[in-house]
Amino acid sequence: LSLKCTNLRAEVVELEGIPLTQPIYSTWDQVWKFKARPDDLLIATYAKAGTTWTQEIVDMIQQNGDVEKCRRDTTYRRHPFLEWSVLEPSELRYSGLELAEAMPSPRTIKTHLPVQLVPPSFWEQKCKIIYVARNAKDNLVSYYHFHRMNKELPDPGTWEEFMEKFMTGKVLWGSWYDHVKGWWKEKDKHRILYLFYEDMKENPKKEIQKILKFLEKDVTQEVLNKILHNTSFEIMKENPMTNYTMEFQGVMDHSISPFMRKGAVGDWKNHFTVAQNKKFDDDYKKKMADTSLVFRTEL
Ligand code: A3P
To answer: What is the ipTM of this complex?
Structure first.
């Protein structure tokens, strides 16, 4: 089993300076030519920023709070993961492109692509996009544990080593700093709703209402409360359709670290040493000097 798992570890290739997996790289021409439809909704994030959570909120809204409908399939299959493809082994085969192309409208599509790599048709079709950003420290911690448990991703190395890779952008989907800044810069030029994980934690009702408004949807107070309840960390952790336990057997090892790990703001404090924190902060200030973006690392 350990041999099989080692073989799954992704080979990383750079595309325009962005580290991606080999299958993404080899299907890139098709990803770039993807035909978005005007009523597509794109959920874009840096990996581990709260994608699954946002996907569940959006689906609950689209299904008008019907829990059974939301349980029609896993998150991974309800919302095609645009650029993601797994070719082998065959039982894990997945093509975000094929899934999207076969899906009737209106579609909700997930991506981790930095803004400059989003297929042009999304801009041409003026699709709505929800972008969710999470503070760098918690995002890094979550990404580290995800690499430990998900054998489809490169081996993270030690915490110290992974932190270094994160700071230098040598991780899948590239630099967190460039990702959040890049999307922030584009947000007012397009139909982009830019949300923060920390705001969602602090006041989920308020953020759900922002999403409702953005999607031009109205729900009753009762439905709103149902959405709130069913998209809470505690419920999603136990929901097999959202907690990633139904797929990826032999790939994700939830005993190493569950997909629904902590769902908190400020867990970075349990990981950073004082020296690491200082180094990270000094570097952060430099990398984020050219943006008006402000993150909260605690609530
Ligand atoms: P942690 O590893 O910090 O727990 P993504 O979906 O982008 O991969 O992000 C996964 C992160 O979002 C994980 O963070 C996960 O626990 C957290 N998450 C998932 N659902 C959540 C929810 N309903 N509320 C809060 N956090 C949630």
So the answer is: 1.00
